[in-house]
Design a protein that fits this description.
heterodimer, A: Phenylalanyl-tRNA Synthetase, Chain B, domain 1, Phenylalanyl-tRNA Synthetase, Chain B, domain 3, eight-stranded mixed beta sheet, 21 helices, elongated, B: alpha+beta, BirA Bifunctional Protein, domain 2, seven-stranded mixed beta sheet, two-stranded antiparallel ribbon
Amino acid sequence: MFVSYKWLQDYVDLSNVSPEELAEKITRSGIEVEGIEVPAKGIENVVVGHVLSCEKHPEADKLNICSVDVGEEEPVQIICGAANVGENQKVAVAKVGAVLPGNFKIKKAKLRGEASNGMICSLQELGVEGKLVPKEFAEGIFNFPSEAVVGEDAIEVLALNDSILELGLTPNRADAMSMLGVAYEVGAILDREVHLPELDYNKHSEQAADRVTIEVEAKEENPIYLAKVIQNVKIGPSPQWMQSRLTAAGIRPHNNVVDITNYVLIEYGQPLHAFDLDQVKTNKIVVRLAKENEKIETLDDAVRELKPHHLVITNGEEPIAIAGVMGGANSEVTEKTTTVLLESAYFAPASVRQTSKDHGLRSEASSRFEKGVDPKRVELAAERAAQLLSLYAGGEVLSGTVGLDDMDKSEKQLTITLEKINRVLGMELTVEEVLDLFRRLQIKAEADQTTIQVSAPTRRGDLLIEEDLIEEVARLYGYDHIPMTLPVHETKPGGLSIRQQKRRLIRQVLEGAGLMQAVTYSLTNDQKAKEFALDVREPVKLMMPMSEERSNLRLSIVPQLLESVSYNLARQQDRIAFYETGSVFLEEEHSDLPREDEHLAGAVTGIWHSHAWQGEKKPVDFYAVKGILDLLWERLGVAEAIRYEQSKEEHLHPGRTAAIYLRDEKIGYIGQVHPSKEKELDLKETYVFEVKLESVYRYETAALHYTAIPRYPSIVRDIALVVESEVLGGDLERIIKNAGGSLLKSVKLFDLYQGEHMEKGKKSLAFSLIYMDPARTLTDDEVVKAHEKVLQAVKDQAGAELRG
Amino acid sequence: MEERLKQLQQEATAKVEQSVDLKQLNDVRVAYLGKKGPITEVLKGMGKLSAEERPKMGALANEVRDDITKAIETKQQLLETAEIEKKLTEESIDVTLPGRPVNSGTHHPLTSVIEDIEDLFLSMGYTVEEGPEVEKDYYNFEALNLPKGHPARDMQDSFYITEDLLLRTHTSPVQARTMERREGKGPVKIICPGKVYRRDNDDATHSHQFMQIEGLVVDENIRMSDLKGTLNVFAKRMFGEDREIRLRPSFFPFTEPSVEMDISCKICGGKGCSVCKGTGWIEILGAGMVHPNVLEMAGFDSKKYTGFAFGMGPERIAMLKYGIDDIRHYYANDQRFLTQFGQKEFK
């Protein structure tokens, strides 16, 4: 809502309150003022001029040589390029020395040999937005009405030195969608009186009811429908002051009838519609729901199909307007109109909202009906418009108002105790203070010692419950006066859940190990949503996505991380390492919500270890990433239950991928992205992992327990085993551990050899075995015995021979 | 003989002095004190001496031998020290060259902000609650006093999955769900962080996915002054002890009264600048007293219980704290952006 500071002064005395002060006060007590605009800021020396003569420039087709009276002794010569300039026009002249927006200074000039001492201005050049300039002046210079006085300050005449406050209205403050509503608000804030417009005017003796009949069939959607008839209207421009006020309010002026309905819309918040009564033809208005397949051509020249829940105004035969949304072309006010039927109505908010949504039409009118207009202003607004039509459109207003008013306009009664107000706010207000606040708001309130009875005026449809009254008190009294306290109650210790603690630990460990936390989008395209998924199924889809790129909920985090990897690769990053934790979304047959599983994913590529000036540069490999996960399992206390198995997964390298198991459940994978996929995504060798965290979170970790540091020496035996290339190191290690018995404390691989000194198809794995008994010193015999068992086991189970 | 010994002593001492390294010194030792050395040679001639002279000469010979030994030892220490120093000089390195880089990652800045806020409220006895990102219309809207057809639903155009399911547009459904689980019994004292989604085109100030963190306290006798006091603690902790807060009236369907909280602008100290758009104040969060309808729908008796709630956007907070100018940075995962947030902040 744009509020003209000048216009507002019609209703509230704003003396000693600057626009800036007013804006600050409004913001602090209820409605955010998002900006203050002065359209003609910085403009000087622009006056009303009279074009005495206008001739074509002999040297230039598009230029005109004008002689303009600007109220000085001699007329000035101005070269004007506007196509619509002409003799006898009253125009805005920027004199030599004038400054226009953008610090554009007007100087003496010569155009093709002719002197030009000033500029004839368009409204745009004076700071008016193009879409608000009346259509006839949109492509050229502006003309004042002929009564404009030559030499007067044009900015003053156009009221462009106004301050326009832009109110950011929240949905509950529909009451402030009118100048009167804002006046009540400002009156309360400043504690000043509100002056409403006087509604006197001359009425014609003929009765409106004799000229037109009104029937309302859909009373639920349309509880109030009032009409007035104004005859002998002369269509023409509205007075300059009205045009200026509409422009300030963000509405483009058209002609006096349309401008007057818009003016009252802004003033009262009550949308009005003017029909050309002669075009209505039947002298009859029937308000009803549309029929199936009914159509209407609206003012914007579009033919619109109506549905049976759309409320329409008809002439008894065909629709002539979509109620509260837009008028029909067939009954539009035109230059030829002489008799106007003025409609003022209350259309049910839900009905208008649905209709305007169906047609994609939101207008100043529909946005007010949608929120519920003040039923008490329906008739007042009609009277106000009739008055203005009689004053500024030469109309004769027939006596009386025709129509139906079937709406309860009683004020809602609310009761609240002082104790409750003070208890909710944490304050100590007195009854007198509270009553005084309601007086300022012009809300009737009475009180005994403890209870306050409030009548919520119909203009304040937002006051429905006690809490709404508490808010009125608090905002007007000022939130600055509320003290600062902390809740007084039994305080229990706060804390993170185990799941939340584990999540934080994961972040710490992975970041400590060199991975950067990424956050990517949950929404992706159909293909990426499915790729790399641990649970392959159709992704959850949006009903109406904004784009194909964001249409599906992800089943895996990896594709999004790879996108981030590509992004960074393209920006010359030589080491890229990301992890992310977040939800993936799984459609479930018998559940009303999709399942949301928290996953951990990672993607690593490029140089892993480097020390440039020492010539070290090692790219990341499978084991670097696996080592990070191993550290994570250890810190999370699940290492004992974790197992890796060679595995094949879609889009992963078939020979460099492991499935990760927690006990017997497959919880994830780790592997190199398949080279063909790497090529597709423009990646270099990249390793990824994804893990279902739900299982990790659920795993009950053993309590920490101290084991005594051994007091007896251990014995180390190193063995190099030659096996077939296919034998897995992990299997060998398991065999050794199982065979080694209780004395074998640790097994560590320390060498892998495959090459020219080895028989083809074989490899050598060297392990270091540590034997120890915590209670005594081991004898050689015991170690030999245990070690022989190990050697036998690897021979039997893996065909391993000791390397010679 | 005596002369010969003295001469030897002089010779040896001179040679010790002249030794430049341990090897030469050792050669001197072997040459003079060895079994085949001249002193031994001299002592062999003792047999020819008289009985009186023999002990005198013996004592003298020992004296000479001791002196030479001492001289060698002293010299040896000197040479050893020099040798070590030489070795150390040779071993010295350029300590100004860069160290070996240690791989390390960082929290995403949004995580840092969220964890900071969580930690502050944990210390005041709150717990952290979470909920689904795909939410029922009921929890996202209806339970929060936004029935179907409510005008405020226009404020947040949503991504629907079915007529009844959507991507949550705020973290408030977690509040509704948590209250419902508590079955009408206070106190509820929670912080709810998480991802939310709205139908916006991504640009410098809009993102279809973003983070939110909300707080809720419900108990008997929770007052608006408690909200103000709590927000004051939060603002000072998050933005600095010198910051002031102010509340401005606002509207949210789930709170009544509703307010927005501003903090004083640090950049201009309240005088007005481009960051605070000339007002001296910066909008940080929305808050209010829980609407009685919300309490009742979640099973709380609104005659007995009151509560406050507040909610904010970690993106905005990080933008203000660090001067980030484009919300898309948070989701592009540009390492050159992310690595800037590795430094720990201390308060």
